[in-house]
Amino acid sequence: MKSILVLMLALAGGSTSAECAPKQAPQVAAVTHIGQIQGSGPTATAGTYTIEAVVTGVYDKLNPAGFYVQEPTRATDANPATSDALFVVQAAPTVKPGDMVRVTGTVLEAAAAPSFGQAVLTEPTVTVISSGNPLPAVTMLPNATFSAAALERHEGMLVQFSGPLVVTDVYNLQKRGELTLTSGGILYQPTQFIDPNDNPATGTASTGTSNLAAIKAYEAANLDRSILLDDGSSANNPQPIPYTDAAFRTVRVGSKIERLRGVLGYGFNQWRIQPLPGAETPVVQVTRPGMPVFGPLDLKLASFNVLNYFNGNGIGGGFPTTRGAKTLPDFARQRSKIIAALRAMNADVVGLTEIENDGTGPASAIQDLVNGLNQAMGAGTYAFVDDGGAAQQPNNTDQIHCAFLYKPAEVRLLGPALVAQAKGVFERPPLAQLFITRRKPRPDTVALVINHFKSKGSGTGPNADQNDGQGGSNDRRREQARALVEFINSTVIPAGSGRVLCLGDYNANYEEDPIDILRAAGLVAVTPPTSASYVFKGLTGSLDHCIVTPNLAGFIDVHKWNINSFEPLFQQYDVAGAATDANSPFRSSDHDPVLIGLNFAGIRPANEAARLFVYPAPAAGSRVYRLPTLPAGTGPLTLEVTLPQGPPMLHLQGSVSLLQAELNRYTAHLPPGIYLVQLRGKGITRTQRVMKE
Hints:
By secondary structure, the chain is α+β, with helices and mostly antiparallel strands.
């Protein structure tokens, strides 16, 4: 009967005692502020949380895929020390920017996947509350005070830099879609400005590590100024290559991004900006340099590293070569680019490095290059200096050697080529040649030396990398620098010219020991530290120099033509393959050529408004040198400009205002480099190091 009664009550609309109990509202998980999860320390607090925030960026091609969320300003914990954003790990996310979402999941931050050092929310349950919401306010990152070490509090948030950013590394652009950017100009090798064993850097000690702390501090500052621009993807070898310029299909070191807004992510030990779509997509502005301009010249000289120019057996076979092109089509592309660069330089004499050491016969690499140049520029335009080695350069133990090309119409040879004979010192001995000009009724004579010191990439024992910023085999390069000085003094100058220009690849940056040894011997490095010829691991330096006897200061002008080191590797013939722009000189090598203008009557540079800058300064133009403010009534002053090691180059007298007005004009003839300005007067003695560009 009980069962019938219950049925009748149900049909009649009644209820049982259990059904009469009040209904319980479904429980809603408490929402936690993201700032409380992120905290003010380096690691987010692990656990299961529910958050509510706005989707700011969706990245389904990252690994792991997912999306970033950030709380609107009104909904944050109001603590500027904590981030208001997280990355939500979700395969194939369907949310859109502007969605307000409620997400429940597990937060973790660890080195392993799927975090990779970033605070992430995993195993999420996602509910879209509303769509079309405005994105949270963007946090401005001031360029002037930017520090990567201070970014933790902005992790995952929308950020924007207050000014333009500069590209300083392009190495991973093709491989991973990444660019390294800085807020204060390109990053230099520390040893361009800081001497490991001298402070100030104008000293010439070449042993010791007394200034090593300054090297390490510069390295740390470089890292702190850097941030990656990612492409929002984890794809290897992305196609098309992101951020490339439409006209040149490239991104160069030194290119600019005027306005960068994105999501601040982290991964693989680096802070990175994930790009936003549409109108917010980062645009890289690329410009390529024109040919350096000189004033009136008696001779135009150049040095050029030709990137292992090997021509096989010289008759179309012999590929792959041991150091150069792997196929004949690759060699044709390399050859075309090298010839395009040399043709554009149009120098009267060119010192070459990294050309195959296979003698001087009709099938040799040097003859092949001359043939190509003369076909492009006219029969007989260039010839090569016979170094005396029919099959291999004398005293050479390497597969490559140093060589000279010259225009017989502009210069003639004085005496035979001179090869450094110091045994067991050089892999590729310096090659010297004396040249006599043909342009004027009264000829002039000058000696050129082309060098290629030992590379930085290897070494054992005393030649192991000493972690002082100078790389491997530094002791070997010091030995080679001393032997070069001996070669100049005992062989080159006695051959008939006291005016000597030493060109080539020294594999040493501006303030490293081998260059100091040359300075200590009275030679002058006539380029400033801001001049660049090589980029390694995102750091710009100069391995290629013009080093001269002091009697040539005031008679030469020097420029480095940045056609190679600032360009990405994917522009190079052996990477680009059939896509190579074979008619372009850009990325014809990995080193930049050095161009030198020589006028025996005194140089008149094309830019007579060149200024002096206070040194050291890692960015050119950061502080123009001006004479100090002196008390009223200060009498006449004497101003001298001298080389750091060497004789006075300029002597002026007059009032402060007169000297300031005339200083740039009177120093216009001086080659680029470092000088000391000494100011003396009654009760006044001031000395300042300056850099001329």
